[in-house]
Design a protein that fits this description.
By secondary structure, the protein is α+β, with helices and mostly antiparallel strands. The protein is built from 10 helices and 44 strands.
Length: 727
């Protein structure tokens, strides 16, 4: 059969017998085969699940596909993002039966399908029937952005008390510093499913304000939350929160977040359950910060703050979890848990936290041994720490109390050792020196350290430790001299001691030690240890810049900070920023004018990617990242010295790449909130599969997360593929 083409030209007809039908078909097939195609079917291999996600309008790009199983020793899940054409590939799945479903902005969860690795599985996305249904999947920070913060004028000293706020605040920014860093958000999210609604089990109340007051009295944290509200202003703060939840109850919705774009679609997230439903974690560690190949493919360790006396351990190779029991040296050490002020909607009158060790932060050394900040005895110090002691540090600056100390666990011997320190500890990190000096924060008026080389050789905890007061070189002569006290005025002939305790601690490659100091406006500290730190150490103090009225120039109130290989400090701010500080830009480093507000030029601010709170008209966002961690050795894949914020309101990690944000959202379970991360290289020759970031759920209220009561904390591993379908 021939194909006939008929041509017409001004009333004339021409018939052309030009091609056989089969020839035309062959030509067309060849033509289309040569065109670029992004819809090539996936070749799913052993250990993988892959396919295409489609919705009513075709392929769904930038949505998450979640595969979860309970067939392994602990609950396990893996999450990937679809590419531009709705395709997905979940790689390296352990042999098990998985529930697989789709989650994404603009959608509701698709029906779960059962699948085993090695099979293609196409999925159907389900469009959210209403904007309200779609918004249930938004990160907490979008909901928190609906909070209507009272106008700046409400916080001026002359009118604050009448407006229900403390006259001590002075500025709206200082009020936000308390809410976002000093109290609420330092412990858990605001805007999560467990916080943006009031539980009916609380009872019946005359007003939403009364209901909120009762809510804050719930559980073992009730006394702390109630005290915090009174510090900033009970009436005004309760009214603000009551207005927030009432508007949400009435149907007010936040703006919709964007779906993952570009490199954000290359992320692979693996998660394991660990710990228990009554415990909450603070931090996780997988390797030696100075050499991220240490402990390759080895166990991951956690730290249970306040809640329980054990170290949770995950073996990611076998998907098994275990516990290292923790003890105290002195059995009279009190529990740090507190009492139940009012019944909790989740746990009633049960006191679920009972820790004595109160472990806060773990670190591994060059041999994979575990060091932690932990309480080992009551707070009153022994005589070796006080006046009259022969210890060099005690002679210069005696210390009477220390609330938390150090602990050491050797996986080879399975032995846990108490280390009593004269100084309190909070975070800890190793320096790059021959003594493997372990520097700590949390000492209040001092910075403390442990010479771990000496300690491991001698076992002498007293002679192996040291501490120093924080002394500014106020006379600018480059050495430490006699100093005036914090309450005293500057004496141009003397140095000056400051009472600005370190919250975080970060030894730098050049031998200096950095840390953040909390409060408003807050700041960062650089310590130069000198040849004999107890008597030679000097510090520099750099505050977040304020204007003449005490309002922030841009950012304010740091939490956790880190240092990069070039000596640039990176810090998370309560204002909704990540900030960098470059000391090399400072015109003044020391001297009588170098007391904090002397190097505004050193600061650069990067607004985090969430909407700003209502009623706040300056730069920033609803975000309140707990910590900034710097990927010094490219353990993730975005390059060396990449700063990453914990993104506590974004429910993910926020990486700053070339001045732009890469949002690594954890979509399941909703409520991801971490306080630290750790990067490890398991195999430097394996590309993206050989490295990754580790984090854990760090909220004090894991029962606020999706699923409610019964949730445990989880370990998360973030990896970055070169493209969304890479193996």
């Amino acid at each position: 059969m021939k194909s006939i083409i008929i041509l017409f030209e001004k009333g004339k007809q021409y018939t052309m017998h030009i091609l056989l039908y089969g020839t035309v078909l062959s030509f067309l097939l060849t033509f289309y085969a040569c065109q670029p195609s992004n819809t090539t079917a996936l070749q799913v291999k052993e250990g993988e699940i892959g396919g295409v996600v489609t919705g009513p309008k075709g392929p769904e790009a930038g949505v998450w596909v979640i595969a979860e199983t309970t067939d392994l020793p602990t609950k396990y899940a893996k999450i990937v993002v679809t590419d531009d054409n709705g395709r997905y590939l979940i790689p390296e799945l352990p042999s098990a039966s998985y529930s697989v479903w789709v989650r994404g902005y603009g959608l509701v969860d698709s029906p779960k399908k059962t699948a085993k690795p090695g099979k293609e599985l196409n999925l159907e996305a389900v469009v959210a029937p209403t904007p309200q249904a779609a918004a249930e999947y938004y990160p907490a920070g979008y909901w928190f952005s609906l909070l209507n913060v009272p106008d700046k004028n409400n916080f001026a000293a002359e009118g604050a008390e009448g407006n229900g706020f403390s006259p001590m605040l002075g500025t709206q920014a200082k009020f936000l510093s308390n809410i976002k860093s000093g109290t609420c958000l330092a412990c858990h999210q605001l805007g999560s499913q467990g916080t943006r609604k009031l539980s009916e089990s609380l009872g019946t109340f005359k007003s939403p304000v009364e209901a909120w007051e009762r809510r804050l009295q719930s559980g073992q944290a009730g006394a702390i939350m109630t005290s915090a509200i009174h510090q900033v202003g009970r009436d005004g703060t309760l009214k603000m929160f009551a207005d927030w939840t009432e508007r949400i109850k009435a149907g007010e919705l936040p703006p919709a977040p964007p779906r993952p774009q570009g490199i954000e679609r290359n992320v692979v997230i693996t998660q394991w359950d660990w710990a228990d439903p009554k415990a909450y974690l603070h931090d996780v560690v997988s390797t030696d910060r100075r050499n991220p190949t240490v402990n390759a493919n080895g166990p991951v360790y956690g730290a249970l703050e306040v809640s329980a006396d054990y170290i949770p351990v995950l073996d990611p190779k076998t998907h098994t979890t275990s516990r290292i029991p923790l003890t105290v040296r002195d059995t009279s050490t009190p529990s740090s848990s507190g009492v139940v002020m009012q019944p909790s909607p989740y746990w009633g009158t049960e006191a679920i936290w009972n820790s004595k060790t109160n472990v806060h932060n773990p670190m591994l050394d060059e041999k994979g041994r575990l060091w932690i900040t932990a309480t080992v005895r009551p707070a009153d110090n022994p005589d070796c720490c006080k006046t009259g002691s022969d210890l060099p540090s005690a002679k210069l600056f005696p210390v009477n109390r220390a609330g938390r100390h150090l602990g050491f666990y050797d996986p080879a011997t399975k032995k846990y050792t108490h280390i009593s320190t004269c100084f309190s500890t909070h975070h800890l990190m190793f320096a790059e020196d021959q003594n493997n000096t372990l520097w700590t924060s949390g000492g209040g008026e001092v910075i403390g350290w442990l010479n771990t080389k000496q300690y491991l050789e001698t076992g002498d905890e007293e002679k192996s430790q040291g501490w120093t007061a924080l002394i500014l070189d106020a006379n600018g002569n480059g050495k430490r001299d006699e100093y005036v006290e914090p309450k005293d005025s500057i004496d141009p002939k003397k140095d000056k001691r400051i009472a600005k305790g370190l919250y975080s601690v970060a030894p730098a490659p050049d031998g200096s030690v950095w840390g953040s100091t909390l409060g408003y406006p807050g700041g960062i500290i650089r310590l130069n240890p000198g040849a004999n730190p107890p008597e030679t150490a000097l510090v520099e103090y750099y505050e977040l810049p304020l204007d003449a009225k005490g309002a922030p120039i841009e950012g304010f109130s740091p939490r956790g900070m880190d240092i990069d290989r070039n000596g640039i400090a990176w810090v998370a701010l309560a204002s909704g920023h990540m900030a960098s500080f470059d000391r090399k830009k400072c015109g003044t480093l020391n001297g009588p004018n170098a007391t904090g507000q002397h190097c505004a030029e050193g600061w650069t601010f990067y607004t985090e990617p969430l909407p700003q709170l209502k009623g706040v008209n300056y730069k920033g966002s609803a975000e309140s990242s707990y910590y900034t961690w710097v990927d010094q050795f490219n353990t993730f894949g975005l390059g060396e010295n990449t700063p990453i914020n914990t993104g506590n309101e974004s429910e993910g990690l926020l990486a700053l790449k070339d001045g732009k944000w890469v949002v690594l959202r954890v979509p399941y379970p909703m409520g991801f909130y971490t306080k630290w991360m750790d990067g490890r290289i398991d195999d430097p020759k394996a590309g993206w599969k050989g490295k990754g970031l580790w984090a854990t759920i760090s909220t004090r209220a894991p029962f606020h997360m999706e699923g409610g009561k019964g949730n445990t904390s989880k370990v998360f591993k973030f990896q970055l593929r070169p493209d969304p379908l890479a193996r």
